[in-house]
Design a protein that fits this description.
about 425 residues; Rossmann fold; binds nicotinamide-adenine-dinucleotide
Length: about 425
């Protein structure tokens, strides 16, 4: 039995789902095959993802494969209530925008009542809840899929302590996911969200991007193209999951044409600050004091702890929402700082964040859909550990994406295939 904001919004939701589905050709081809082969028959899927139009098309695709789908959001602010209403006519939905933390967790629990055989997470909350509160239910779980960097980091920590009890596929770690989603998707959608919430010009602004991983690189690349002066802040440590040091990332940022410096140096010169680290309090108390008047702070990382909002509140005389999702904090030292979307994922927090462009999520969710199918087929043979996306699935998604645009790559000759694997010097 679904729990959503307003059933009457379903017509709008159906329109949004229809538009997304028209522009998701990769999922459409997977759906066609799923309808025929029904690879998920008899399975219950528990999903915690941002409930919006593109996710809706993924959920419909999974359901067309024969699964029973039950979904909640993975963030209290990001549900599109119209899409939730439309989806609730086809599956169990427990999601609405503007949830309290308590409501959010009660929705995750509602999903778990469907006794999922496969979990699909974006950030890991569902699978963590299963492990921490309902360990007995894990017996019925074949495995899980994780959509984002932060979720994979948490799972790795869990696995390292021997606490992970089911196999999980790190969908986030697919090469096509990084490319489609973290880099190009976030690169566009974060800037869209900031522009839509503030209606301000990007050109000529000094924009500080904290973290030069896949997400930070995408954002910085697009900002440079729009005429911003981009400053990158990286860390003097190895804090990303690919094991590359912040020094490599910092040097790459420099060679890409950004200014590179520490947060202490960047704080007094930035006009807009965007965090994308997957780490905690990367903008904090001592930085706010140094900032210019009316700077804008936005977070693109998964959790709302990248910007230290608590300290901002403590340091402020008062705060006021001046536009939807834009709050001005008046600091006790007389300066003002503006925070977007309460420091939550700026590109997903409604009403000003609409998530990644549809075509991007077509690729990302195609990886997700194929991984769910893979778990259904082979999950029982896997160990309780974190797996990368099988490379043939990863490649298949890139191929389908190109095919869908009528782009076909040059076929190698047999001699070229042989040459690529020989150790002899060619003549
Ligand atoms: N907004 C979105 O739609 C979206 C999409 C994908 C991923 N994400 C999230 O964005 C975050 C980053 O993802 P990614 O794929 O770029 O990860 P990544 O690991 O590739 O990059 C993170 C970067 O931040 C740097 N870093 C860590 N701590 C730092 C600090 N204190 N100061 C400066 N730099 C620091 C790391 O060295 C690394 O280069 C994660 O939380 C991820 O879940 C968001």
């Amino acid at each position: 039995m679904s729990k959503i904001k307003d059933k009457a919004l379903a017509e709008d939701g159906r329109r949004a789902l229809g538009w997304a589905s028209e522009n998701m050709p990769i999922l459409a081809s997977i759906r066609e095959r799923f309808e025929e082969e029904k690879p998920l028959t008899g399975l219950s899927l528990g999903v915690a993802m941002h409930v919006e139009q593109k996710t809706g098309v993924l959920l419909q695709t999974l359901q067309s494969g024969g699964a029973d789908v039950s979904v909640s959001s993975c963030n209290p602010l990001t549900t599109d209530d119209a899409v939730a209403a439309a989806l609730s006519e086809e599956m169990d939905v427990f999601a609405w925008s503007g949830q309290t933390n308590k409501e959010y967790y009660s929705c995750l629990e509602s999903v778990l009542r469907s006794a999922p055989n496969i979990t699909v997470d974006d950030g890991g909350d569902l699978i963590f809840l299963l492990h921490s509160k309902y360990p007995a239910m894990l017996n019925e779980v074949i495995g899980g899929c994780e959509e984002t960097t932060t979720g994979v980091i948490r799972l790795k920590a869990m696995s390292g302590e021997g606490e992970l009890k089911v196999p999980v596929i790190a969908v986030n770690n697919a090469y096509s996911k990084y490319l489609f989603d973290n880099r190009y998707g976030t690169g566009q959608s974060v800037i869209d969200a900031i522009a839509s919430a503030t209606n301000m010009l990007i050109a000529g602004k000094t924009v500080v991007v904290v973290g030069y991983g896949w997400v930070g690189r995408g954002i910085a690349m697009r900002l440079r193209g729009m005429g911003a002066r981009v400053v990158v802040v990286e860390t003097a440590a190895s804090l990303n999951q690919q094991g590359q040091s912040g020094y490599h990332r910092g040097l790459e940022a420099l060679y890409d044409g950004n200014w590179v410096m520490s947060m202490e140096e960047a704080a007094p010169i930035g006009d807009i600050f965007i965090t994308a680290t997957g780490n905690k309090h990367v903008i904090s108390k001592h930085h706010y004091k140094e900032m210019k008047e009316n700077v804008i702070l936005a977070n693109a990382g998964h959790f709302n702890n990248e910007i230290d909002v608590e300290s901002l509140q403590e340091m402020s005389k008062n705060s006021k929402e001046i536009m939807p999702n834009l709050v001005r904090y008046r600091l006790k030292n007389g300066k003002s700082v503006m925070l977007l979307s309460e420091g939550r994922l700026v590109n997903l927090a409604r009403p000003t964040g609409h998530g990644h462009p549809i075509e991007i999520m077509d690729g990302s969710f195609a990886v997700q859909g194929l991984c769910v199918e893979y778990l259904a087929k082979s999950g029982k043979e896997l160990e309780s550990q974190i797996y990368d996306v099988p490379s043939e699935l990863d490649e298949e998604v890139a191929r389908l994406a190109l095919d869908s645009q009528g782009i076909f790559l040059q076929k190698p000759t047999p001699q070229q295939v042989e040459y690529a694997t020989t150790w002899e010097e060619g003549t």
